[in-house]
Amino acid sequence: MGQNKLQAKKIAFLGMMLALIIVLLWLERMLPPLPALPPNMKLGLSNIVVMFCLLFIGKKEAISLVFFKALFNMFMRGPIGGLLSLSGGFLSIFAVILVIWITKNKASYILLGIVGALFHNVGQLIAFCIFMRTWLLFIFYSPVLLIAGTILGIVTGTLLKVSLPALQKAHIEFGAGKDRKQ
After folding, report:
1. What's the angle, vertex CA 41, arms to CA 39 and CA 46, rounded to 5?
2. Which of helix, strand or coil describes residue 147?
3. 34: which DSSP letter?
4. How many other CB atoms sit within 10 Å of the CB of residue 10?
5. Confidence of residue 10 (pLDDT cuts 50, 70, 90)
6. Structural domains of the chain sorted by starting position, each given as residue range(s) with its CATH number in brackets
7. Contact in structure between 18 and 133 (CB atoms under 8 Å)
8. Exposure string (b/e) for 106-126, b if CB count within 10 Å is 16 or more?
9. pLDDT digit string (tens) for 45-54?
10. 91-95, 133-137, 154-158: the lowest-pLDDT one
11. Per-residue pLDDT at 29
12. Backbone angles phi, psi at 34, to 5 degrees
């Protein structure tokens, strides 16, 4: 198969993944607030798609999805929403990449989900504190985000593992991805 055709399939697949991210973001906005969670905290369902792409497609592609997800959030929630999505998304993905590298690609999906959720929260909180010019929020809100991020990270890591067969099946049409031991 020609290089151009493989590249086109990869771009088409990433376009499908971005569309899935947008649908999941929209779905989360439609859900009622989750009980016992901080205000405006979401499950992070779209992060499942980003983690899949990171693990099975590539780092550059996953980072691109984070950027386009933030751009979409900027259009939907305004510049602050875009900034929070970008800062949380980038810190999260770099932390997950670091964990994958440290564990030599043997970290569980649940661990990656927890790391991703915690660093997403931290990235958003840092950006918000810089924007608001106060660190008091960071001091008081961090313990809450630590607990909520751990719980939601377990949920997203578990959902990633459960959704892998469907995501991998979709990926088969667009060429082989990276193998990863489950």
Report:
1. 160
2. helix
3. P
4. 16
5. confident
6. 3-172 (1.10.1760.20)
7. no
8. ebebbbbbbbbbbbbbbbbbb
9. 999 999 999 9
10. 133-137
11. 86
12. -80, 130
